[in-house]
Amino acid sequence: KAGVTQTPRYLIKTRGQQVTLSCSPISGHRSVSWYQQTPGQGLQFLFEYFSETQRNKGNFPGRFSGRQFSNSRSEMNVSTLELGDSALYLCASRTDIYTEAFFGQGTRLTVV
Amino acid sequence: GQSLEQPSEVTAVEGAIVQINCTYQTSGFYGLSWYQQHDGGAPTFLSYNALDGLEETGRFSSFLSRSDSYGYLLLQELQMKDSASYFCAVRDPGTASKLTFGTGTRLQVTL
Fold first, then answer.
1. Are B99 and B109 in contact (CB under 8 A)?
2. Contacts of B89 in chain A (CB under 8 A)
3. 3-class DSSP assignment, residue A31
4. A82 and A60 in contact (C-beta within 8 Å)?
């Protein structure tokens, strides 16, 4: 069974640009969550989607947005990038909210 | 809000036993999970405790005391490959869809 796939693995962007990250969950998993990981703030929850609906959102500015498609694949978008957005962005999928989350390898975003 | 505290670093010798503690403050409680993350890798689920007591999975065990808001991860027969960061996490009591992670403990296994 294939794991959670995130693309791209590495990305370098310039301040002010926007970026879209992609996540393909494990087959059969309808819940997809996104997390930001930085050395200073650790792992922080961004948002969670289930069956194309956002069910929960973390404390991030509106520049961070996401969506989920009918095949459960998810994308997150960050607009007007800031240096502080440099982080590892992790996607996690699970069958439902009562089961454990399986994480992808993440996308390492560097903003210069 | 929710907060979880862990020691930042732990060092232990190969073959030894090490315990990583986690204390939490939550507005509700829906179980304590543990994840392992190697440098450059994805967090990997290790264990979950919903009730008080010890859960054992091979060389790893996890303990929970809800009355003390405390849990720990016990790693036995340490191997070099166990060198990684370990995170405890709790689920959001409202929706259970959000995980709040601890600060993480970096375990260094030495010869």
1. no
2. 43
3. strand
4. no
Q: Is the pLDDT of residue A39 over 70?
A: yes
Report d(CA A100, CA A103) in Å as an integer. Answer: 10
Contacts of B41 (CB under 8 A, 6+ apart): A105, B84
B103: nearest CA partner in chain A: A42
Nearest-neighbour CA in chain A from B13: distance (Å) = 26
Question: For A58, which DSSP code?
Answer: -
Q: Which of A90, A102, A105 sits opposite B45 (nearest CB)?
A: A102
Closest residue in A to B49 (Cα) is: A100
B48 and A106 within 8 Å at the Cβ level: the answer is no
The DSSP symbol for B60 reads E
Cα A47 off chain centre by: 8
Going along B18-91, which residue ranges are E strands?
A: 18-25, 32-37, 44-49, 53-57, 60-65, 70-75, 84-91
**Residue whose structure tokens are 């998810």:** A74
Going by pLDDT thresholds of 50, 70 and 90, the confidence category of residue B87 is very high
| pLDDT, tens digit (0-9, with 9 covering 90-100), for B98-111 | 889 999 999 999 99
Tell me how far apart the 2 most distant CA atoms of chain A are, in Å: 39
Give the strand order in the sheet containing B70-75. Answer: B3-5, B18-25, B70-75, B60-65, B53-57
